[in-house]
Amino acid sequence: MKQQWRSLVLALCAGTAAIGAGIGTGVGTGIGEEGSGDIAVTRLPFTPDSGSIAIRCGRLIDGVGDTPLRDQLVIIRDGRIASVAPADAAPADLPLLALPTHTCLPGLIDTHTHLADSGIDSADVLDILTPEQQLPLSRANARTTLLAGYTVARDLGSYLAFGVNGIRDRINAGEDIGPRIQTAGFYLTIPGGGGDTIVPGRAPETIPAVLRAGVARGPEQFAEKARAAIAGGADVIKVIASGAVLAYGGVPGAPEMTRAEIAAVVREAHAAGLKVAAHAHGAESIKDAILAGADTIEHASLADDESIRLAAARGVAFSMDIYDGDYISAVGRKEGWPEEFVRKGDETTEAQRQVFSAAVTAGVPLIYGTDSAVYPHGWNARQFSYAVARGQSPMAAIQSATSVAAHFMGWEGQVGALKPGLLGDLIAVKGDPLADIRRLEQVSLVVKGGHVFKWRDVE
């Protein structure tokens, strides 16, 4: 099934090379008496961050404040938010979209995606060996992610070195659509570790080097690999500190990289102005990563009380993918995923959700990260209801995917809030997501840099 899914995506992309001939979901019309004509969906090519529009919001969550605002007018000029104020007469020179029954929010942020992947079996990556083969897949995934309401995505690694650089650069040039991307370039991992492509029955020496670009041992080698990632255009560095769930042979709770190895990577990344995300399921690896200076901890499934207190004290964020364990269990069994993967998923899913609740109580910063690609891209918002069920308030969950995420990505002055001066990234959902967080699974409007990429009225 996984190969059929990948083949379908590649065939779809090959058949729609001019993906931007009509890249949104149609043309919407301004709602209400003040609507000033049709709202056209942006077409390719376009100049990014140059759009201008007025949006009247029945309810507005700005990503920072704890109380929603009523009847607000958001003005975006030349790609940036010019004003957010109580609705009054709209500027005559701008198209107006009036949304009296909708809630407007900042564009959402997923801090843990894998845009170059659409399956979980490590063996599958051996079938996609070149950037030319990878681009159609990452293009489709980026488009789907944006239209789901995620205007920013932190892509935390690809087995193919720099597999997401191409789509990131095309999006930045206005040649494709997708979120604003930070990409890690490749995984930094020990030989046979959770970021390596070693699979049963395949000799390591037969696997192309481009699929093992970040494999290293010792602080010096890891520092060298970090420099290579930076030189190749990485925006963030990803280390695999512990074993992984969806990898052969690893034990999620067991350390793989040492604290000294992580620290060597952190020194190189921070010197270049980049942040470090540490994949760490186990408590020892979480503590090692925090003490080595990592900026975020990915998964944190088996954190103990000490590591939770340490994260809270040091202000290190947890990015916890608490939805996808259900997908691994149900779909993995149905589709015959490797027994090892499903077993390790079962062993970490409930434990991770209990850690999430403990982290909420302890005041650990939480950022919204889904590990999308384990499950289909575009389902990113399914995790919100899990976060609320496990102790986050709906507003805190939204802030974890807006202003808090932007802060830990180093982009808080650009995205993550509906405030004057920030980039004009806005979404809208019908109704009130604070009353029903699952409203975020049905996004009506997506605006990025003042350009409308999706508009449809969702019942």
UniProtKB/TrEMBL annotation:
<dbReference type="InterPro" id="IPR057744">
    <property type="entry name" value="OTAase-like"/>
</dbReference>
<dbReference type="InterPro" id="IPR051781">
    <property type="entry name" value="Metallo-dep_Hydrolase"/>
</dbReference>
<dbReference type="GO" id="GO:0016810">
    <property type="term" value="F:hydrolase activity, acting on carbon-nitrogen (but not peptide) bonds"/>
</dbReference>
<dbReference type="InterPro" id="IPR006680">
    <property type="entry name" value="Amidohydro-rel"/>
</dbReference>
<dbReference type="Pfam" id="PF01979">
    <property type="entry name" value="Amidohydro_1"/>
</dbReference>
<keyword id="KW-0732">Signal</keyword>
<dbReference type="InterPro" id="IPR011059">
    <property type="entry name" value="Metal-dep_hydrolase_composite"/>
</dbReference>
<dbReference type="InterPro" id="IPR032466">
    <property type="entry name" value="Metal_Hydrolase"/>
</dbReference>
<feature type="domain" description="Amidohydrolase-related">
    <location>
        <begin position="105"/>
        <end position="452"/>
    </location>
</feature>
<feature type="signal peptide">
    <location>
        <begin position="1"/>
        <end position="21"/>
    </location>
</feature>
<protein>
    <submittedName>
        <fullName>Amidohydrolase family protein</fullName>
    </submittedName>
</protein>
